[in-house]
Amino acid sequence: MFRRTVPLVLLAIGIAVVPGAAQTTDTSAPLTTVRDPQALSVIQQAVIALGGFAVAAQIADATVTGTIQPADGGHLKAGTFVWMDAPPEFRYEIRTVDATRVFASGHGFPANQVGARARPLLQHMATATLPFHLPALVLARELQDARYSVLLVGSVVVNGALAVHVRISLNTDSVSAAVTPQDWYFDSSSGLPIRVEHRLPDNHHANDCAVEAEDFSNFQTVKGLQVPFHMTIYEDGVLQGAATVGSVNFNTGLSSSEFDLAVGGAQ
């Protein structure tokens, strides 16, 4: 198994991906786009439950802060985080007792930084990284983008609740098909998302992926948008810890330079 070379802060939750804990995605399968009407309807109802398309469309940028609580036996470390998004740009920072780690999109030149040292990453690392902590923004964008495949999988039970399972992926090329698959689970009563599973790719081998999951709870309304203030985090089915949101601020006018690091960012 290839040694994973992702940043220790990844996909907005600061999770360290362990070498040898990967799931390989088959990139040889035909690239097709399927827009299942039933699945599209499920996502549409979810976006409405989360505040609606008009509210989501008004969010130009977001800053989310909070704390990470590690689980026993996991590889998360206790710390604080600041997650900044102005889709498709992002900057995810976590501070622990031993280091500050940053993962930034860099306007097409993603990079990560540990302490004072920054290094560039390949583009698919940014492609795989979406603001899953703001599910309304992700789902609204993917519903309105005809390039995304959306497929109804069926009904399952998640944490004791009946849920509808929908799979989403961007199959425009083999790399995107490898790193973008998402499995969403929506509460059959409220329509809100209760879990998302998505890919954590290796920097040098896009089809070498671990699977991360976040369980959403404690939704609170922020400027008309439903935001989960608690996320339980898993990697390849193993509990890693939880992220608790302390504050959410929208449309503060984030500077474009926030999303660039000294190595790999726009100059």
Order of helices and strands: EHHEEEEEEHHEEHEEEEE
Mean pLDDT: 88
What CATH architecture do you see? Clam
The major pleated sheet works out as: 14 strands, antiparallel
Q: Could you tell me the radius of gyration in angstroms? A: 17 Å
| Total tally of structural domains | 1
CA-based shape: globular
Annotation, overall tally of beta strands: 14
CATH T-level fold name: outer membrane lipoprotein receptor (LolB), chain A
Instruction: Return residue spans where pLDDT drops below 50 for at least 5 consecutive residues.
Output: 1-30
At the fourth level of CATH, the homologous superfamily is: Lipoprotein localisation LolA/LolB/LppX
Helix content: 10-25%
What's the CATH first level? Answer: Mainly Beta
N-to-C span: 35 Å
Strand content: 35-45%
The class by helix and strand makeup works out as mainly beta
Number of DSSP helices? 5
Description:
- It is globular, with a radius of gyration of 17 Å.
- Mean pLDDT is 88; it is low at 1-30.
- Strand 6 (111-114) and strand 7 form a beta hairpin.
- Strands 1, 2, 3, 4, 5, 6, 7, 8, 9, 10, 11, 12, 13 and 14 form a 14-stranded antiparallel beta sheet that branches.
- With 267 residues, the protein is mainly beta.
- The protein has five helices and 14 strands.
- It is 15% helix and 43% strand.
- The protein has one domain (23-253): Clam (outer membrane lipoprotein receptor (LolB), chain A), CATH 2.50.20.10.
